[in-house]
Amino acid sequence: MHVDLEGLRILDAVIEHGSFAKAAAKLNCTQPAISYKLKKLEERLNVAIFDREHYRAELTPAGLVILEEARRLLHHAERLRTIAQSFESGWEAYLEVVIDGAMPMDPVMRTLKLMAERDVPTRVQMKIEFLDGVQDCFEADEADIMIARDYRESPFHVIEPLRDIEFVLCVSSEHPLAGKERVNLLELEEHVKLTINGSRSRMDLSGKTSVDGRRVFYLSDFDSKKRAILLGLGYGWMPVYMIHEELRSGRVKVVPYENGSWYGFTPKFVTRSNKPFGKAGQFFKSTLLEQISQDWLGSAPSLRGDLAASITVTGQATLSGR
């Protein structure tokens, strides 16, 4: 059935202004033209919208429902027109962003909130991956933006380093490793290692790049890993910003691993040189970088200094993975 938007606009005007005559004056047409259009609308819908038995035409019960739906359709039609104009003026229809799950998400969420508040018409797809899975997803989906820890260089990418993220090797205060003054590799391997393996990450079981020991539990995200650590299930690397309160309170302890209990990395903001941004991509990038500059919990040097006296760190950490 063809939807007569003009007829629906006339119906809305008649009800809003209180009479056919006032609606005709508002719409700059004659009253007979208004009556004719509404009659044709009723015929097309096969519904009596007005009760004409009275001196002044009133909406029937069915007419009340039609009016409600008409206003909803008119709103969507206006929204569609506005979106089309936005795309014509340079806003993308769609923007896909792939982010490493180790990143602090507050700056990202504040960026999306500002996009929503400014009524940006672009649909944003946010995907969370880990390690090499971030770039695998970025390439497979031909995404627009990648924020990655592990990055394989490409001549078709534009890279901008972000502020560092710091990790710490830690356990629950109830875990046997929490009471040690110094932990070597053999002692570490006696306990369960907790690590992250995202949906696209390639699991490394060779033992060449990570210390896995006899028992390794692969989890899907850092929230799950944090819960497992707090339960005393095992040890693992955690972003400092996610557990700084637990470290300060003593619920979580730094493992005094002889090869290093801390390490950091510089995440990369990556875009495509052959796929220039529209207005949404430009807004997302500039706003996110501003949010990061204002508030970044990727590292906590003051916390590290507070804890340095209570742990033994002989060098930078050599354990890779998460």
What features would you describe in this structure?
By secondary structure, this protein is of the alpha/beta class. It has three domains: 84 residues, Winged helix-like DNA-binding domain superfamily/Winged helix DNA-binding domain (Arc Repressor Mutant, subunit A), CATH 1.10.10.10; 98 residues, D-Maltodextrin-Binding Protein, domain 2 (3-Layer(aba) Sandwich); 109 residues, D-Maltodextrin-Binding Protein, domain 2 (3-Layer(aba) Sandwich), CATH 3.40.190. Helix content is 42%, strand content 18%. The protein contains eleven helices and 13 strands. The protein has a five-stranded mixed β-sheet with strand order 4-3-5-13-6, with helices on one face. Strands 7, 10, 11 and 12 form a four-stranded antiparallel β-sheet that branches. Helix 5 links the parallel strand 3 and strand 4. Helix 2 packs across helix 3. The longest helix has 28 residues.
